[in-house]
Amino acid sequence: MHEELDLEGLSLQEATSYVAKYLAAYKQSQQRRGQAEEEFGRWEKRVRLAHEKGETELAQAALARAEKAATEFKQARAEEKELGITCDLLKQRLERLARQPEFSVDAEALLAHMQNMIDSGTMGTGGTQ
Q: 1, CA 20 to 30 Å: which among 9, 55, 76, 82?
């Protein structure tokens, strides 16, 4: 299991915040993928236009940019896919965590109670003297 997918030891509130950060990163990756896809489409169109007008040199330059844009698009798409899978897993684990009862201990009250037991001599005697 990847460490970043482990919600164990986090409160529901902490886990929710943690998952929300991944969801925000996923939304940003979707935007980057969309922008990269548009950029690739623009350069692809420019290659076609340059060929149609017989501008070989311009077409070659546009093709080089289109290839770069295609690489960036593929990377953005892969990142989006990976973050999507991660988010799905995190959401499932968060839902599982939300269904579990949450236990809390007031450390100050527990320490005070233990101190009272020690002071009264009932510590270790089962609560009786």
A: 76
CA distance 18 to 61: 44
What is the pTM for the complete model shown?
Answer: 0.70
Which conformational region is residue 6 in: left (phi greater than 0), alpha (psi within -120 to 50 degrees), or beta?
beta
Amino acid at 66: A
The answer to whether 50 and 93 are in contact (CB under 8 A) is no
Return the DSSP state at 103.
Answer: P
Q: Give residue limits of the domains in the chain.
A: 3-104
Mean pLDDT by groups of 10 residues along the chain of 129 residues: 77 93 97 98 97 96 97 98 96 91 73 84 57
Q: Are 22 and 90 in contact (CB under 8 A)?
A: yes
